[in-house]
Amino acid sequence: MLRKVDILSYYPEYLQKYREYQKIADAENPEFQIFWDSDEMIRLDTYIMTAGNWGLARYEKLLGIVSLPGDDPEVRRMRILAQWNRTIPYTYKYFLGILETVTGGNFEVIPDFNNYEMTIIINVFIPGVIEELRHITDEMIPCNIKIITNNMLFAQAESDTYIGSAVSTATAYHLS
Question: pTM higher than 0.90 for the full model?
Answer without folding.
Answer: no
